[in-house]
């Protein structure tokens, strides 16, 4: 069977060869003139092959190349065979397919056609074909042909078929080139009405792997189908004589297919598009449109058939790239399907949509990308189109239009789409990414798995308008978008909105005049489930949701998270006043978390300016770490007070869980506007029924409270425009009163009227009214009426009357150094009325305060340190004497015959104590000797005796003030002692200005002049300093000696009873020191015996002299005798020494301390006469002298002079003084 089949084919081939007629054509003139006749004769009976062996063939200008195809005809050229029409239109091939046979073919192979000019002949062309019968079984085919410099069309076909029977195209161009042409083809049906509708599809043309360049238009397809495959089209520039520059298809159902074709660098400088398609079908597959422009601003004018048919689109674009083009489609009623395509690098200045401007159309796009697009005036698609997009990407787009995408028709949906890096920078507040406007009958916008990321809009990102709108958003992600308005702004009259699985984070609404990320108006039915709103920032109110201009609201939010969102008021939700209060407006909140949201001012989560929130169903709602200035979670700003009380119920709902929410002003969880004004601490005194003096302050401070009775702190002064003012209620008497400081405004939550004063002409009763400035009818005021009684001034006050007869009661004022403010003194008014002067008023210490400046407390006496008998005689001296006695007694507890340590301790304690006692006793006696007065030499003029030469102009002057002493001499030096500051001030004065003062004492010089006094003072000062230094040196020396002698060998001596005792190496030194100490004490007693006759000395000085006598008898002298008398019996020595020393130091202790203890116990310790000897002799009136031998009575000096002399003593025996918290060394010259 296989052999028979191939044999059959071979026979057919032989038969065909037998009937094939070959003709070879030369390029001579005669042959070319008779070309048609040469070919037509054999065509009657045979298929004819015309072989063109020459390179050039010139068509005769007078020739008529009418070919009648009874059979098939083939022209075979060699490579580069050229047919030259010699710029004429006479030599075109007019093809007539005769009746009878079928499947006739006209084929041109490897021929170049050029230089044809049919400018003046309508519809002229190189090949003009027609058929006798109404069939489609014929073929005109061009293979490897070129057409250039043709001023006419290439082929003009008159179609007569009425039925499709042939599957192959009727016209085929394979591997052909078209350059510098007017038109490639024209195809039309001989029955003109069929040029409007193509029902048969019995004619088609095919261009495969062709090249088109520099052509006015490709063709006019009045009837038939056209396919262009694997071709390249460039520089198609159009012409006024043609409707368009590419293809004009006028018949309904014409089909145009362009596959694997590149249409690049075509620029039509006419107001004509590339394609004009009327009711046709266009398919673009795997092709490229690049750099294609027309002055018409669109490439295709497409009038479709049925825009609602997604299953039967009239335009299919698949796997096609559009790069730098005009608007692709301008038209109406189109159903366009786009798959796997790309639109990019497009810049448009046109006011029409830049991709598809096809109204009343449907655009269905899948797996398509729109990128790198700049729209300066318009949107991407016609607003009258229904957009059905799936897996479409929009990125790197900039638009200056009102909206990048506009939808004003029945339904649009976006599934698995993304919008990234899109900038909508059109007119402020009128530029958006998408605008959806529903018609009266309603429309639906659906988002499913849509991502909108890194986009910026100069208005609302998505605008929803119209009458009846349905929004279905599922798995929508809005991330890192900035808009000058909400991300979704819904202004539709009625909306049904379903949001599910939204991820809304890191978005910003930077418009200070538009609220929310999602803003709703009119009638809203809203459901939000399984969504996240996070890290969003709103420069206005509502960090996520904003409800304004609401007529009705039915809202349900379930299983969602709102975290770290920010708004001015309402960190998550903002409710403005509803327009219609009759609607139910139910709100359900179920399984929600509000976390770390923040409002700049009010409501960290919810701000409600609406008293008709109807929160019906609340379950498991948690508010955690939210913040606002007031109302960390919820803030109610309602105007109707009665309704507010109803709304307060839902904020305390048990299903609302509040955790660590905070507010700066008030209401960590919930708060309202200021609701009540009330007085702070009004329970302290009855401020509203008060008695005052004229001019007194009435300290008033008023707090603000919200309706939850929470104090409004208002640290940022948001309520600073709210204030209070006090006026007189009985205006008839207003002229008798003057109010000062009677108004205030709230600051830090307090209205401060602490400086409020009332001045009156006469004492009276008045009523005051407290009113609110900038009154808000929501705020209640408690106790707004005050009853005030204005009383007379108190006895201790000064009544001051001004020129208008208003009086005030003032407290007396004293000098600045009067410590009234410290609470230690009071100012006593002077005797002059209506005058409050520091010169007339007196400063007086309050009980419990002492000294001139009232800065010393009169402390409870728990010890005797501040007793004057101790303080004046010298507290430190007393303590040092007692310490010396203690050291001496402690030394008795150590046995010098036991070991070196005991011997050393006995040595250092005993001698340190003896020397210390001696130094203090010496200071007492020397001070008395130098500053005291021998009573036998008393001359009656002073307690101090000054030398004769200075009697006339020198004196010691004491003022009344205890603690101040002036020593004045003619040497113009004024020595002033200030006991309060312990400081000597030396001032130069004029001796001529010296005068006696009242209540002062003058001390004339008698035995000593002033220089001798200065010398004595200097001696005391120097002696004190020298003895202190000597004691320190002696103590150090004793320690060094002890350390040195410790290194000697240990020696024990056997005593008379055969026991052994330690021989201390300090024994010899001890004997020497005891001798020295005995001499010192003896010198002290002898040198001080004259003091027994002195006056102006401390009495204890006398006791010290008596103690010295005991000391010299039973003190170191006994120790010395004991050591020398019986050394070989240590027990006897030690016992005798301890006994005599104990008696000695006990007697010294008694003599030194008895008077202090005695007078303290008798509470006479402050009587200076008890411890200071100051007596003087009466004057002998017989001899008019103090120094006569008559017996004269001794008289006590007055207390004031004694106290001043004591202060003089105290200062001159001090080395250091304390002043202003510092220790000051007193030099001897400063002491003067």
UniProtKB/TrEMBL annotation:
- Please indicate which superkingdom the organism of origin belongs to: Eukaryota
Keyword annotations for this protein, in alphabetical order, are: Membrane, Signal, Transmembrane, Transmembrane helix
Q: Where are the transmembrane segments?
A: 874-895, 907-927, 1019-1045, 1066-1084, 1104-1125, 1132-1154
Q: Which residues form the signal peptide?
A: 1-20
Stated name of the protein: EGF-like domain-containing protein
Organism field: Neocallimastix californiae
């Amino acid at each position: 069977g296989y052999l028979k089949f191939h044999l059959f084919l071979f026979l057919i081939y032989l038969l065909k060869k037998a009937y094939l007629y070959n003709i070879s054509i030369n390029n001579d003139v005669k042959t070319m003139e008779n070309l048609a006749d040469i070919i037509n004769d054999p065509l009657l009976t045979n298929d004819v092959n015309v072989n063109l062996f020459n390179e050039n063939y010139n068509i005769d200008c007078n020739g008529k190349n009418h070919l009648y195809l009874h059979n098939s005809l083939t022209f075979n050229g060699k490579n580069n065979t050229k047919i030259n029409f010699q710029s004429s239109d006479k030599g075109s091939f007019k093809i007539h397919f005769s009746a009878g046979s079928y499947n006739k073919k006209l084929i041109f192979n490897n021929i170049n056609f050029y230089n044809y000019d049919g400018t003046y002949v309508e519809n002229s062309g190189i090949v003009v074909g027609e058929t006798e019968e109404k069939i489609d079984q014929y073929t005109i085919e061009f293979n490897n042909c070129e057409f250039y410099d043709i001023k006419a069309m290439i082929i003009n076909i008159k179609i007569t078929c009425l039925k499709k029977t042939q599957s192959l195209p009727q016209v085929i161009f394979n591997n052909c080139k078209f350059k510098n042409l007017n038109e490639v083809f024209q195809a039309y049906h001989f029955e003109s009405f069929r040029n409007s509708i193509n029902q048969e599809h019995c004619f088609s043309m095919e261009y495969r792997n062709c090249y088109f360049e520099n052509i006015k238009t490709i063709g006019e397809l009045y009837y038939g189908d056209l396919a262009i495959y694997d071709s390249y089209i460039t520089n198609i520039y159009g012409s006024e004589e043609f409707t368009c520059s590419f293809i004009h298809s006028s018949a309904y159902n014409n089909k145009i297919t362009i596959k694997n074709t590149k249409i690049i660098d075509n620029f039509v400088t006419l107001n004509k598009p590339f394609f004009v398609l009327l009711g046709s079908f266009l398919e673009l597959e795997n092709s490229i449109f690049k750099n294609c422009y027309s002055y018409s601003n669109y490439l295709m004018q497409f009038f479709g058939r049925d825009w609602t048919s997604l299953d039967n689109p009239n335009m299919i674009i698949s796997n096609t790239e559009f790069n730098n083009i005009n608007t692709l489609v301008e038209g109406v009623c189109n159903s366009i399907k786009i798959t796997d395509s790309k639109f990019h690098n497009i810049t448009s200045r046109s006011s029409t949509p830049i991709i598809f401007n096809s109204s009343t159309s449907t655009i269905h796009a899948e797996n398509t990308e729109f990128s790198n697009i700049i729209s300066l005036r318009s949107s991407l698609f016609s607003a009258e189109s229904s957009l059905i997009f799936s897996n479409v990407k929009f990125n790197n787009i900039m638009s200056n239009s009102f909206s990048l995408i506009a939808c004003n028709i029945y339904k649009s949906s976006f599934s698995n789409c993304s919008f990234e890096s899109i900038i909508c920078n059109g007119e402020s507040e009128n530029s958006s990414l998408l605008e959806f406007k529903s018609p009266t009958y309603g429309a639906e916008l659906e988002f499913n798995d849509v991502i909108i990321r890194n986009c910026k809009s100069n208005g609302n990102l998505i605008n929803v308008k119209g009458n009846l709108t349905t929004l279905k958003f599922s798995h929508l992600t809005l991330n890192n978008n900035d808009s000058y308005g909400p991300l979704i702004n819904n202004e539709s009259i009625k909306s049904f909105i379903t949001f599910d699985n939204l991820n809304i984070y890191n978005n910003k609404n930077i418009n200070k005049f538009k609220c929310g990320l999602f803003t709703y108006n009119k009638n809203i039915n809203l459901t939000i489930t399984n969504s996240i709103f996070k890290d969003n920032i709103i420069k206005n109110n509502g960090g996520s949701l904003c409800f304004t201009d609401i007529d009705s609201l039915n809202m349900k939010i379930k299983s969602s998270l709102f975290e770290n969102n920010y708004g001015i008021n309402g960190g998550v939700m903002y409710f403005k006043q509803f327009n219609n209060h009759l609607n139910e407006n139910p709100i359900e909140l179920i399984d929600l978390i509000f976390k770390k949201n923040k409002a700049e001012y009010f409501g960290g989560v919810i701000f409600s300016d609406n008293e008709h929130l109807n929160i019906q169903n609340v379950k498991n709602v948690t508010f955690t770490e939210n913040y606002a200035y007031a109302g960390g979670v919820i803030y109610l700003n309602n105007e109707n007070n009665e309704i507010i009380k109803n709304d307060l119920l839902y904020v305390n709902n048990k299903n609302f869980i509040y955790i660590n929410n905070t507010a700066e002003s008030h209401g960590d969880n919930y708060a309202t506007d200021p609701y009540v004004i009330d007085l702070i601490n009004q329970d302290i005194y009855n401020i509203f029924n008060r008695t005052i003096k004229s001019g007194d302050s009435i300290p008033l401070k008023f707090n603000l409270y919200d309706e939850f009775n929470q104090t409004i702190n208002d640290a940022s002064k948001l309520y600073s425009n709210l204030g209070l003012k006090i006026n007189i209620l009985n205006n008839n008497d207003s002229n008798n009163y003057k109010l000062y400081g009677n108004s205030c405004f709230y600051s830090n939550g307090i209205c401060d009227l602490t400086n409020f004063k009332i001045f009156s002409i006469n004492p009276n009763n008045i009523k005051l009214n407290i009113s609110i400035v900038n009154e808000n009818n929501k705020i209640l005021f408690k106790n707004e009426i005050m009853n005030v009684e204005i009383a007379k001034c108190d006895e201790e006050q000064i009544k001051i009357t001004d020129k208008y007869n208003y009086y005030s009661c003032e407290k007396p004022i004293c000098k600045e150094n009067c410590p009234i403010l410290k609470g230690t003194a009071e100012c006593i008014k002077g005797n002059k009325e209506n005058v409050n002067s520091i010169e007339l008023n007196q400063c007086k210490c309050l009980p419990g305060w002492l000294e001139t400046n009232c800065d010393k407390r009169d402390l409870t006496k728990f010890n005797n340190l501040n007793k004057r008998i101790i303080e004046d005689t010298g507290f430190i001296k007393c303590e040092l004497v007692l310490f010396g006695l203690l050291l001496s007694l402690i030394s008795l507890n150590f046995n010098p015959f036991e070991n070196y340590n005991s011997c050393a301790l006995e040595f250092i304690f005993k001698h340190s104590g003896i020397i210390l006692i001696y130094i203090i006793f010496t200071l007492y006696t020397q001070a008395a000797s130098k500053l005291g007065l021998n009573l036998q030499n008393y001359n009656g003029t002073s307690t101090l005796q000054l030398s004769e030469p200075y009697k006339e102009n020198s004196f010691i002057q004491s003022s009344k003030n205890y603690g101040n002493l002036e020593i004045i001499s003619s040497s113009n030096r004024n020595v002033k002692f200030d006991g309060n500051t312990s400081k000597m001030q030396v001032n130069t004065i004029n001796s001529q200005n010296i005068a006696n003062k009242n209540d002062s004492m003058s001390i004339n010089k008698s035995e000593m002049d002033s220089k001798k006094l200065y010398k004595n003072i200097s001696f005391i000062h120097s002696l004190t300093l020298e003895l202190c230094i000597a004691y320190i040196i002696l103590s150090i020396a004793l320690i060094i000696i002890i350390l040195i002698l410790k290194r000697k060998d240990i020696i024990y001596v056997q005593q008379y009873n055969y026991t052994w005792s330690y021989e201390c190496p300090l024994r010899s030194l001890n004997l020497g020191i005891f001798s020295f100490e005995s001499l010192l004490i003896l010198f002290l007693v002898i040198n001080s015996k004259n003091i027994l006759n002195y006056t102006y000395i401390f009495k204890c000085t006398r006791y010290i002299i008596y103690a010295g006598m005991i000391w010299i008898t039973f003190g170191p002298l006994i120790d010395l005798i004991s050591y020398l008398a019986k050394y070989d019996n240590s027990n006897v020595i030690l016992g005798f020494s301890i006994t005599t020393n104990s008696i000695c130091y006990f007697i010294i202790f008694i003599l030194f301390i008895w008077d202090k203890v005695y007078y303290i116990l008798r509470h006479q310790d402050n009587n200076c006469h008890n411890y200071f000897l100051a007596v003087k002799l009466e004057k002998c009136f017989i001899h008019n002298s103090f120094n006569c031998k008559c017996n004269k009575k001794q008289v006590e000096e007055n207390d004031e002079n004694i106290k001043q002399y004591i202060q003089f003593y105290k200062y001159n025996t001090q080395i250091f003084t304390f002043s202003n918290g510092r220790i000051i060394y007193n030099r001897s010259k400063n002491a003067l």
